[in-house]
Structure formats: C-alpha cells, structure tokens
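Milestone M4 deliverable, item 7.
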Amino acid sequence: MDFAHQALVDNLPLTKRDMYYKDVPLFKAQGTVDRLVDDLAMTLGLERADLKIRAASKGLICGTGLTIYFLEGEVISINDLEGTLIPTGETIERFELKGDISWVLVVEKEAVFQTLCRFQFASHRSLPGPGLIITGKGYPDVATRQFVKTLSDNLPAHIPIVALVDGDAYGLDILSVYKYGSHNLRHENKKLAAKRIKWLGIWASEMADLKIDLDALIPITPHDEKKALAVLNRPIDVVPTKWRKVKELTRMLHVRRKAEIEILSSSSSQKSNSLIHYLAHKICHFIEMSA
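Output delivered:
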C-alpha cells in the first residue's frame, strides 16, 4: 500500500515488476505482488490504473493500417513483418485505422505469431482482405486484453475476431480470459472482456479431417487432466456448452491426447505450409458467416 500511495503522490505509474524488485526478500515471488495488488484494488473498489500500478506490457500485434497515438506525442505505425509491443491503455491517446481490415486473429503462442509475421499472413494473398494478428504470449496481460476489448467494441460487426489456441484445457482457459474475463480481475471484467471473440481452433475433433493421425498428438499429463476437469466444472457462463460438447475436452480425456497448434506445421502434416492453409480457410469461413 505504501508503494501505491507513493506512486499516487508522485503521479508516476509503477509496474508490478518494479514493486517486486523494490523488496525481493519480502515478496519472494512476483505472484505475491500480483495477488496483493489485485486484492487491494478489489477491496477499494478501484482499478489498478487508479492506484497508478500497472502490469508491464508483453502482448504483440502485427498487420497493416493501424497507427497508435500516445499521450506524450509519440506515434507508432505497425507493420505485417514484425510484432509491435501493445502499450498499456493509460499511455494511449487514440488508435487510428487507415483503410479497411477484414479480420482479427488472436493467437495463443508467440512462436506461432512470429511464424505468421514471417509469412506476412496479415496481408496474405489467400485472404479476402488484410487483417490484424495479436498474441498475448499465453495468458494475456491487461494491455492486450484492453486492446482486444477495444477492437471488439468498435469494429463493425461484419469483421470477425477469432482466436487460435491449443485444443486443450489451457487453450480454452486462455480463450475464456479474452472472452469472459479472469477470476483474479473479476471486478474489471466488464472493461476487459471481448464478448465478440470466437474460437477458430484448433479442435481435437478436426484432426481426422486434417489427415493427422491420433498417434501424432501429444499424450496428456496428469496436470492436463486435472485442468480439463476443473474447466468442465466451471459455470456455463464462462465455459459455454459448445466448448464442452463439440467433442473437445471430453474427447481429449477419452483419447488421452491433446491437439496443439504446432501439429499443423509438423512433418506429419501433408503440407509444410498447412498452418497457413488452415487459417486462411477458417478465416474465410468466419468472414462469410459474418457478412
């Protein structure tokens, strides 16, 4: 609380990482600081930004036509060749889209994001129009969630916002954080939950159609099983029936295998660029459905 008070007095934002390093012996782990800050904000009925405390940014975005204007005057234009760090909402004056975009893809993993940048997938010729690609590098930080929420609230309804996550309990949990919010920040979920986001894949139930053998999938661990059962026991408002009953989590538990995104670009797939073909086909389908 003293750190938050000093940040307010000095009017200088403080990251949770800064707080941790101010007294490592006291906190012992970064997670301790994270929980304390979230609990303090919820107890006071405030957002972390009101306390001048924020998480360090980690999410990335690539694409064409998006310009970010900062309160201090800096301007950044993103491109489709490399990722640009998604800044915290408190530092942004406005976003500006020049030209039309046709889709938004949220990717769970940074490695997959970098592969898509390398192929310039945001402006790939197999797609009906340019798009934006975002990654939160696993579980997303607040800045990435705020950005996806902003797109969800402001883009026209015919522009689909879709997510590519692993076909396992952790992938669905990450998707749920984007779409419905997190338990730790439940007091801020109305400002962070991007209700429009839809699950593009990858689904364990589509492996046969993709000509991927079951033996090529990774065996699940006891942690995977425990996580899947925990997710299945959640309320319907955070784990929809469709996620439970499209033969995904229950299928994973039955066959004892999980479908990770990397299987689309593995040597067992028919084409070395099967990830690109898969995403292009799926995104085109969502565009048609949204028209």
